[in-house]
Design a protein that fits this description.
Blueprint: E1 9-10, E2 15-16, H1 19-59, H2 73-79, E3 97-104, E4 112-119, E5 125-132, H3 136-142, E6 150-154, E7 157-163, E8 176-182, E9 185-191, H4 195-210
Antiparallel strand pairs: 1-2, 3-4, 4-5, 5-9, 6-7, 7-8, 8-9
């Protein structure tokens, strides 16, 4: 239906649209189309992102087990070229493993250092450090400048004790430490393990250096 001028009559209005109403109607239609297109593009982007994630999950190799970082500290010690020195590489019971073994020619204290990182059967840590011709400064630096708290005799060998377990997490890997000297070798044992694991390691070190 049209008016005498030939303009269509809008049913809702019962009369022809004014130019302003025509512009408003078309503008609303354009906005609606843009909003629809934006929502559609967003859905497409989400689908594409999900597809990429699924692709990466499908093609990236994921190990079924934790990567084994075990090192053979005894073999590394045997192959190290350190004349006139026996590096601490004690025989330990099944359940102990090592995740580090390296020799440092000179530290800032001027000391040669052999380091072994040990994991106990209950998954706690003990670090073994052997300072060759070590001085008091080196020993103190390994123990965060903390004072000794006592002594223990293990398998006939006296060890100086540095017990910081009451500090909780603040002690880090120095929650408990034992220090003893065998000829030119100062041995520092530090970690989070229990007394039984420290005792086992201390006995094994004594046995190696006593032979």
């Amino acid at each position: 239906m049209t008016d005498p001028d030939g303009r269509p009559i809008v049913a809702e209005l019962g009369r022809p649209e004014t130019p302003e109403e025509t512009w408003a109607r078309k503008d609303a239609a354009r906005r609606s189309r843009r909003e629809h297109q934006t929502a559609f593009n967003l859905v497409l982007a989400l689908i594409a992102s999900l597809g990429i994630v699924l692709f990466l999950v499908a093609v990236v190799v994921r190990p079924d087990q934790t990567v084994d970082r075990t090192v053979d500290y005894q073999q590394i010690a045997a192959e190290a070229d350190v004349p006139g020195v026996t590096l601490a590489a004690p025989d330990l019971p099944d359940g102990f493993s090592s995740n580090r073994a390296d020799f440092q020619e000179r530290t800032s204290d001027g000391v040669q250092v052999w380091t072994v990182g040990l994991v106990t059967p209950d998954r706690q840590y003990i670090g073994l450090q052997q300072g060759i011709d070590a001085n008091d400064s080196w020993v103190s630096n390994q123990l965060d400048q903390k004072p000794a708290t006592g002594d223990r005799t293990i398998d006939g060998t006296e060890w100086t004790v540095y017990d910081r377990r009451d500090e909780g997490k603040d002690a880090g890997n120095h929650a408990y430490s034992l220090v003893s000297t065998f000829d030119r070798n100062t041995i520092v044992l530090s970690g989070t393990a229990d007394d039984a694991s420290f005792t086992t390691l201390a006995k094994a070190v004594t046995e190696q250096f006593a032979n």
